[in-house]
Structure formats: structure tokens, C-alpha cells
Amino acid sequence: MDYYQKFQMSPFAERVLHGNNKICPGPGSQRALLTCAESLRQITFETSRASMAALETILIWCALLGLCIGYYLVPYLITYSALQDIPAASRIAAVSNLWLAFQARRVRRSAAVHAAHQRLGPIVRIAPNHISIASTAAVHPVYGHGNGLLKSDFYDAFVSFEPGLFSTRDRAEHTRKRRMVSHTFSTKALAGFEQYIQQNLAVFVRQWNLKADNANGQFAKVDALAWCNYLAFDMIGDLAFGQPFGMLEKGKDIAELQLEPNGPISHAPAVYLLDKRGELNALLGCAPALIPYAKWIPDPFFYKGLSGRLGVNAIGTARVTERLQRGTKSDRIDLLARLMEGKDELGNSLGRNELISEALTQMVAGSDTTANSLCAVIYWTLKSPGVLQKLQKELDAVIANHDCAPTFSQVKDVKYLRAVINEGLRMHSTNSIGLAREVPPGPGLEILGHHFPAGTVLSVPTYSIHHSKEVWGDDADCFRPERWECLTGDQRTCFIPFSHGPRACSGRNVAEMEMVLITAIMFSRYDFELYQHQWKLRDGFLNKPVECQIGFKKRYR
Predict the structure, then answer these.
(1) Which of 337, 341, 310, 314 lies closest to 324, judged by CA?
(2) Where exactly are the structural domains of the chain?
(3) Are 517 and 198 in contact (CB under 8 A)?
(4) Distances from the Cα of 209 to the Cαs of 104, 203, 213, 215, in angstroms?
(5) CB–CB of 50/42 below 8 Å?
(6) What's the pLDDT at 64?
(7) What is the CA angle 424-428-430, rounded to 5?
(8) By C-alpha distance, which of 173, 88, 190 is closest to 129?
């Protein structure tokens, strides 16, 4: 029986053919019925095809969901079974890295991890195989010399052209790179850098004096964060590449970039690009499997972050290209010149891409961290009653002539100045997240009575141990420079603003020199008012203030 015969025998056909108990006469009625039957057949076929397509889609999504569940659940039940007794930050964090990635997407990772530690104690599971340990007992085992722990795949997100000193995970490669770079920050090299720091400070003072003069004795209003960024970027531009970016002179965030090694030069906001790059890298580091697919994720966060990556790489390329074209004819020895001089044990120099990668590391580490830390020192000094006045009194005692910039040797031993800077670094750890390390093959590691097998990722959350009441006392959340007059052993161990051990910041001495000179000049020359008594932070790879509104005027005419 064919389709048409079935249709003619159906109740619907009966109603059409025998409406009012009368058969519709004529061949026209038969043709109409056949046309109707054909239409119904087509509708049935299309409906069936749509249903099959929908079913296939559902099955595909079910399969993908099953793979995702299996991907996380199997390791959870088998590989990570030794960690199941450790409380997790959330149920999702126990079986997936999505919780940590989500906190990074919200730019509040360190705050979320800190809150988890306050609820659950010093050992918290923040991903299936990632344990955060907020304890003095973990600092040396996780970061110290001779422990054998390796950087985790978190750092894959920070690779630009190729792994650099900061992002390489291979121990032998890191040793090679560190040998080639270490002379860059030697005591002899450090002494030669001060003149370039002073030159940029002179531009900074000139610009601020103009603003103060234009305010006619009132407080000149500025965003301190913006000017800290301009100063830090120009300093690292001068130190690393032999020429500042020109942000201080222009009073705005702008830098040259080059998208291709031999391409045209254009301009872009370097600070903004660096911010977005850091936020994206912090997220991708939590979920490295997303790195190849980031450009297809329909979220502006990823688009801005990828644009930031491209822009920062282009800025580094433009600077290195320009510096290489100048060659080594100049007597001036900057960081890039020292990188070009570096040799490994076989006498090989850094290749071009490797040179750009290391130059980017210097640029990022020497600008963003200094600017954020300096801004924090300004904010907390102005927010805390009596601190500014005490600091100015001590600086006045060692700076006889305020028309001349103090030298590093003049102010480096001012104890209260150092205490203010250190307390600022403690209160606002510019790198607040725990830097991830992986337990190497072997017997594993034991901390606080817990055994962590090979392959476990461990971290010590900087913000949490810098604000631990067990270490710093009940006033751990208060800015009190006087605490640095007498530190306990645990406090010395827990103070890690530049990290700790063989992978600690190689440019720490340069950063400290910059912080000491900038802070001494600013607070000795100007009086301040704080217009922003609460500030907002965005926690990417670095914990960054959004703004810091202040007023300043000259102390001396």
C-alpha cells in the first residue's frame, strides 16, 4: 500500500471526501487531494530530517559533556586520589580547574583563594591537582633552592616568541638563560644604572613642578597610578633599550610598536595593552588547554587580552629592532646591550627571538611591578595618619639641599623609608597569587603532615601569607611601618614580594633602587592629599589598582 492509498483511507481524508456525508465530485477534487497528500508527505519528511539533526546535535553535546566529565573525573578518582582528603575551595574546584579560571576571569583570584583559606584553613585544593598552602612551612619547600620543584604549565600562557627566563619550565634551559642574564644585574651594572634613573626622575619632577605652579598654591590633582606608570615605563625604556618611551614628556600612555620585524612603526597605549595581556595570561594559565582556542572564544575579555598580547609583543619587537640597528657603537651599556653580550657555556649568544623574549621580560617586570608597588606605597602612606609626616622628617635629616636630587647612597639606609616601602609591598603584593610549582618525579613532598605525590602542583598565596595574623599579628591588615623595626624569623620567611629561591625576580636590586629613589624624591619635595579613601583592584597576573586620585603641592619654593 503506497503513501497516497494510506492517505485516502485516513480519517482526515474521510472528512475531506465525505464532508456533510457527501462525496466531493469531479477530478478537480481528486487532484486537490493528491496535492494535499504530497504536501503532507513533504512536511513529514522535513520534520523527520529536522528531528534527526536535532538528535545528532544532542548526541554530540552529550558526547562532549561525557568527555569533559571523564577528563576531570577519571584523574580525580585515580590520579588525584591522594589529595581527596584536602578541603576544596568549592565542589567544582575539586574536579575541575574551571573554578580557578572563573575567579581569574572575574579578576579576583587572590581574593577568592584568600577567602577560601579563611574558611578552610592553611591547605586548600583550588583545582583537582593544585594545592594552595598558606603557611610559613611551605615557602622554602615549594620555592627554595635545592627542592627540585619545577614551574607548572601555568607559565605556558606567558610564552611570547619562545620561552624566556621567566616562562621556561625546563631546568637546564633556565640555568643556561640565567647564566647569560645574571651579569646584567650585577653590583657593577647596578651602579651604572642610577644615572639613567635620575635623568627620568628629573623629567618627572619638572612635569610635577609645572602642575604645582599652575595650581597657584592649591593642591594639583592627578591620578598617581597614571604617573607611576609613565615614570616606570620611561625608566625601563631607558635602562633596557637606551631610550625612554616618552610618556613623562607627553603626560600620557603611548608607545611605539611594530607588528612585523620590518613593518611600519605605529603607536598604542602600552600600559593598557600590558594590563589586558596580564589578565588574559592569568586566566589561560589556569586552563592551558584553552590557549590554542582563545581566539575563537566569543568573550571581549579574550579579544582584549589577545590584542594586548599582540601589542606588547609589537612594542618589544620595535624596541629591539631599533636597538639592534644602532648596534654597539654607543658607549652606553643598557640591559639589552648586556643581553647581547651574554654567552652560554658553549659561547653561543641569544638568538633574535630569544633576545626579544628576554627584552619583553625585562620590560614587563621592570614597568608594571614598579608602578603598582609605588602607587601602593603612595596610597597607604597618605591613608595612614602620621606616616607621611614621620617619613618627611627622616628624609629632611639626610637631604640637605632639596633643589638637588638625592643619590641612592644618601637615602638607601634611611630605615623608616625602607620600612614604608616594605610595608607597602606587604600590604599590596603586586603579585598576590600563588606561583605554581610542580612536584618532580620521585618520592613526593611532605608539608604540614600532608604527602604530595609527584605531579602535584603546589603554590603559596603571597597575599594570604602577607596578611596572615599568625605571622604578622592581629593588625596584619593595617599599614604599620614600625613593625619592620624588629622582625621575627617567620616574618622574614613569609615576606616574598619578589618570590623566593632560584626562580625569584632577577631584577630585584634594580627595582629596589628605583623604589627608594622615587619614594625619597616624591615625599621630600611634595605635600599630599588623598582624595580616594577606598580603591578598586583588578587581579590579573599582577594585582593592579584601577586608579589613585591624589593632590600635591611643593613643600619648598
Answers:
(1) 337
(2) 3-76, 133-554
(3) yes
(4) 40, 10, 6, 10
(5) no
(6) 62
(7) 110
(8) 88
Q: What are phi and psi of 421, to 5 degrees?
A: -65, -45
Residue type, 544: K
pLDDT at position 2 = 42
3-state DSSP of 67-120: HHHHHHHHHHHCCCHHHCCCCECCHHHHHCCHHHHHHHHCCEHHHHHHHHHHHH
pLDDT surpassing 80 at residue 284: yes
pLDDT score of 517: 97
pLDDT tens digits for 472-504?
Answer: 999 999 999 999 999 999 999 999 999 998 888
Residue 269 near residue 261 (C-beta atoms within 8 A): no
Domain 133-554 has CATH 3.50.50.60: no
**Residue 505 in marked binding region:** yes
Check whether 165 has a pLDDT greater than 90. Answer: no
Please give the Cα distance from 122 to 374 (Å, whole number). 30
- Provide the 8-state DSSP code for 244: -
Q: How far apart are CA 380 and CA 428, in angstroms?
A: 9
Query: What is the pTM for the complete model shown?
Result: 0.84
Pull the grid cell for residue 114: 584568600
